Amino acid sequence: MISVAEAQNIILEHSTKGGTESIAFEICLNRMLAEGIYTDRDAPPFDRVAMDGIAIDSRQLLKQQSFFIEAIQAAGQEQKPLKNPENCIEVMTGAVLPYHTDCVIPYEKVTIQNGIAKLDSMAHKPFQNTHRKGIDAKKGDLLLPSGTWIQPGVKGILATTGNTQVKVVKLPKVMICSTGDELVPIESEPLPHQIRRSNVYMLQAALKELNVEAKTTHLPDDKAKLTSAIKQLLDEFDVLLFSGAVSKGKYDYLPVVFQELGLQIHIHGVKQKPGKPFLFGTKGTKCVFGFPGNPTSTLVCFHAYFKLWLNQYLGITLIPNYAYLTKDIVFKKPLTNHLLVKTSHDNGKTMANPIANSGSGDLVHLALANAFLSLPSEQDEFKKGELYPITYFHQNSF
Amino acid sequence: MISVAEAQNIILEHSTKGGTESIAFEICLNRMLAEGIYTDRDAPPFDRVAMDGIAIDSRQLLKQQSFFIEAIQAAGQEQKPLKNPENCIEVMTGAVLPYHTDCVIPYEKVTIQNGIAKLDSMAHKPFQNTHRKGIDAKKGDLLLPSGTWIQPGVKGILATTGNTQVKVVKLPKVMICSTGDELVPIESEPLPHQIRRSNVYMLQAALKELNVEAKTTHLPDDKAKLTSAIKQLLDEFDVLLFSGAVSKGKYDYLPVVFQELGLQIHIHGVKQKPGKPFLFGTKGTKCVFGFPGNPTSTLVCFHAYFKLWLNQYLGITLIPNYAYLTKDIVFKKPLTNHLLVKTSHDNGKTMANPIANSGSGDLVHLALANAFLSLPSEQDEFKKGELYPITYFHQNSF
């Protein structure tokens, strides 16, 4: 068996980068930009009024305190000129700064009576309360490099720059397969020895949080049927995720079926708990992840391995994250212990509070966790206050 | 003008709790559960085999080391009995523990030859490698209280317990309205004094990250048209979000239109930068949020005020979060300074790195930030290493 770090390196070696596609602006949120976005104009595109008030020629400040209002410059109107330098123009936020003016004085610092604006003080500077043309970016500047994650602010920039179509990294086509003859559909009343399918829905939800819409299917514990079903799924999908059937059981046919279908199995067994029987294989650019069938094993392996693969596919750079253990833990096996935790915050620090649970088959307590700490295999005792790597179960944690 | 804390209290006083609805299991991710979920059976529902191997009667351990394999108990099969206490049954993970057995010995600790399993050692304990009936929950136990956020693990529990329909808190119907005659559609080539609409798309994306699908519209800077459009929108939607037209400009008609339509304006003006002209009003259970039109003001007010309202509507308890400022900042105005930052992690601590920007109209640099620090108004100097409240622009940060 290999270590967690070795397994993660193997995954990274065998993951491919996704292709690109052009999609509509409307649906580009939480996708990875695959082109550089350049401004088609200066940002802002004109000297922009940044406060409601009056615009004057600041050189007049030494000479006069009262200004006749000769016009109004509203947002969305063509630039007007100040005809008489001794006058002013009322200006609105978002408007073009009128020609021959260079100073905006907000209403709060002006008294207006009978069409005359009187300044409360003369302490004003050229270009105050203006947002100057090109100060944020010049026409032709690279605003968003390829490899930018499209979050709401980025979507705002794509709108401003008129990108009705956006080139992004394609999403992989993913099928989630449950195995195990003990599983019955949610709507069923299970017999005493049966349980309802749940891992596939948990994985589907975890994928949806990563913006990947995946399908689910169930495959029987029958070698011939498994083989023909998987052969077909490999044609249609980029990635197959399996829950169950990768361990040492009599009906754990997946490893042998994968081999017969010509898949190269790069990982089968990792020095970790939970998730020891974890399997990863590839055939060309297609790949299969075999997660052990217990809920915690499945979800932990999904985040420790599949998410790593997906990040590389999309071009997301993972920044390792750490949290403080809040309780002494003893774990004597020479395995990496993926410890379920619920995080909290304490004065800007991330605290990892272990979730008591009955093992990897325990879905009830898994749902209370929002992350896991990976406690290194070479240690037996882990003390309160020590810092360990953390992996979150939710999106936006990369 | 009121303080940020006063404004937030007013929002909380005037926010209502959302009603409930029953939705299909398939679409319940990232919704707020509005009913308690009880187990319909013990969890696990039977003494479950937790390792592939053999099951024996542990009392035999003192007497014998080799066990004849009399049957196989696969997952999904009805419980079998061990007929002869001196024999064993091969068992698979997920199977029912056979009747008259109480101890699972994994394949790793057994040598099987000619149908006889020989133990490597006698050091085994009753009920080892089993997941005992009801250990995680007893039939009738409350597994998920009302007010649980449906994340992937929770969805797994809803599946296990057979909830094909789920009672959740309704989502509010939200319309996002842009104002400002300088705005043109994304697909347009703007004239020199025009800019493309972007705030509405940024807000729509921010709402989508909170799982709320909102619509967008544009309203002209014309009082009569605004009045009739808003009257109609108030009938159809629970919440209207406005970007622009709430300040002191000549064409900032919203405050007066709201009053004429019978809305109570609870907030208009907050001691903060950006976002000073922020407005909040209600009419019955309907409410309007008037965000100042600059991109940063809009997004900051959305997160500081609308998200607070939404959390209360959905029943999410907000836990305040803090981060370490990484740079000295001087800000002398008696206003709360919502400082754009990009967070990073340093040994389990959240670090807030200020984003240089040219003010609230600067969309380019806003897109680089993932959060803002709220620096209190009663201070002028903020030192590197000090801890301040942080608000994230992304989901899953509550």
From TrEMBL, chains A, B:
Its EC number is 2.10.1.1. InterPro entries: MoaB/Mog-like_dom_sf, MoaB/Mog_dom, MoeA-like, MoeA_C_domain_IV, MoeA_C_domain_IV_sf, MoeA_linker/N, MoeA_linker/N_sf. Its cofactor is Mg(2+). Keywords: Magnesium, Metal-binding, Molybdenum, Molybdenum cofactor biosynthesis, Transferase. It is an enzyme of class 2 (transferase). One of its GO terms (cellular component) is cytosol. SUPFAM superfamilies: MoeA C-terminal domain-like, MoeA N-terminal region -like, Molybdenum cofactor biosynthesis proteins. Residues 175-313 form the MoaB/Mog domain. This is Molybdopterin molybdenumtransferase.
